[in-house]
Design a protein that fits this description.
This protein has helices spanning about 5-20, 25-30, 50-60, and strands at about 30-40, 45-50, 70-80, 80-90, 95-105, 110-120. By secondary structure, it is α+β, with helices and mostly antiparallel strands. Strands 2-1-6-5-4-3 form a 6-stranded mixed beta sheet.
Length: about 120
């Protein structure tokens, strides 16, 4: 794995741990301050900023003390200082496929956009 791939894996791992544990500080470390999340939940389009998403996870984490559910990067494409990672993850009983767009700013990768799809 290249250095960028390792760094992106670490950022995604921090993101997954943050939302499963409901840890705002972990999420805000992985997410760019101008992060946006979008997707459909119960047939309604949902948009969240970094703060909104982190606050929601802090309040609604399904099992903050349990193990981090298995996750994986299905596809990763890096183009200079941008990257797209398609990941499969779990939050509680729901499985997701998240499309994460990342930027490398000042040598640090962060997630700037997430489009999510609930698989089951």
């Amino acid at each position: 794995m290249s250095e960028d791939e390792l760094q992106i894996h670490d950022v995604v791992s921090t993101y997954v741990a943050g939302f499963n544990r409901g840890k705002r500080e972990l999420l805000l470390e992985a997410l760019h301050p101008r992060f946006v999340s979008a997707g459909f939940f119960q047939h309604e389009l949902q948009w969240d900023s970094a703060e909104e998403f982190a606050s929601f996870c802090a309040q609604a984490a399904p099992d903050p003390d349990g193990p981090i559910p298995e996750w994986r990067i299905e596809t990763l494409v890096i183009s200079g200082q941008t990257a797209v990672a398609i990941i499969r993850d779990r939050w509680g009983v729901r499985q997701f496929r998240d499309s994460l767009t990342l930027l490398k700013d000042s040598g640090r990768w962060q997630i700037v956009f997430k489009a999510f799809h609930i698989l089951d």
